């Protein structure tokens, strides 16, 4: 029997963010004939005893970046990693967004902030702006600011605690009025879409708000991103992906492309779990 390790983390009780996909995903895999263990990436286990490690909810990796990188290098030399380690290393740094801009994908306008002095050279005098670390999950470390003075104070506070650069983006009011849409894909096929609660105004970590239709224009936008290539691998060839977009008056704008630790919202879309269970076979050869 093929043995799969579903890789997660130890949830923080002070700031809870449990992986709600675990029961429905692992049950679907077991019904499809796989042996599945739930493993914490920070606890000892024999990675070579698994036919594959399914990297799913290692959501504290940013706070343990060096250890996570070393761990991923080690286990990828011992067994198959899904999605591949090369994709994970590329995708964990949100500066991949600039590559997508160069390919003509409509994204939210983004600037890279590497020191607080840059704030005074960018016009943020009245606008509400979002700042997020280039490495991070679930809106951890992200913040908003309105005006130059508030932005400078908060950006300096970030750099007092971290060396990670920040991405700066305008805060889109559509995130609150229409919602950020997460499109969940398996092997390039869009299975379902949900609207996330806005984490920066309502709290949480991009939690489920409601299901939403996979419209033809949304599918067309997703299709363009599915052709984005990382090394020798296109997004559409990956086992799982999540494409987060915001609907605007100018069409959809890409927020993030999640290729290694996205919530898949399978607890609210259990039929998709069966498709994921069937679709993993191609990645185990």
UniProtKB/TrEMBL annotation:
Domain Prokaryotic glutathione synthetase ATP-binding: 108-263
Annotated organism of origin: freshwater metagenome
Gene Ontology terms for molecular function: ATP binding; glutathione synthase activity
Name assigned to this protein: Unannotated protein
């Amino acid at each position: 029997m093929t043995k799969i390790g579903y890789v997660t983390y130890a949830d923080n009780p002070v700031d809870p963010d449990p992986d709600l996909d675990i029961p429905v995903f692992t049950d679907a895999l077991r019904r499809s004939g796989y042996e599945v263990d739930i493993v914490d990436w920070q606890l000892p286990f024999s990675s070579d005893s698994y036919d594959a490690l399914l990297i799913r909810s290692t959501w504290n990796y940013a706070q343990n970046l060096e250890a996570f990188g070393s761990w991923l290098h080690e286990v990828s030399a011992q067994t198959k990693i899904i999605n591949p380690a090369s994709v994970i290393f590329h995708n964990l740094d949100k500066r991949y967004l600039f590559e997508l801009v160069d390919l003509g994908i409509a994204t939210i306008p983004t600037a890279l902030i590497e020191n607080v002095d840059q704030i005074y050279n960018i016009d943020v005098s009245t606008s509400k702006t979002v700042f997020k670390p280039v490495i991070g999950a679930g809106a951890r470390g992200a913040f908003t600011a309105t005006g130059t003075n508030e932005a400078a104070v908060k950006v300096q506070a970030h750099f007092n605690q971290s060396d990670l650069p920040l991405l700066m983006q305008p805060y889109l009011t559509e995130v609150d009025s229409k919602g950020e849409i997460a499109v969940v894909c398996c092997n390039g096929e869009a299975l379902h879409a949900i609207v996330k609660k806005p984490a920066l105004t309502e709290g949480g970590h991009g939690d489920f708000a409601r299901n939403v239709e996979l419209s033809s224009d949304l599918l067309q936008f997703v299709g363009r991103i599915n052709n984005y290539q990382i090394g020798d691998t296109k997004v559409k060839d990956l086992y799982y992906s999540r494409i987060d977009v915001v609907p605007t008056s100018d069409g959809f704008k890409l927020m993030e492309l999640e290729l290694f630790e996205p919530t898949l919202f399978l607890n609210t879309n259990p039929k998709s779990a069966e498709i994921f269970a069937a679709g993993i076979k191609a990645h185990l050869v």
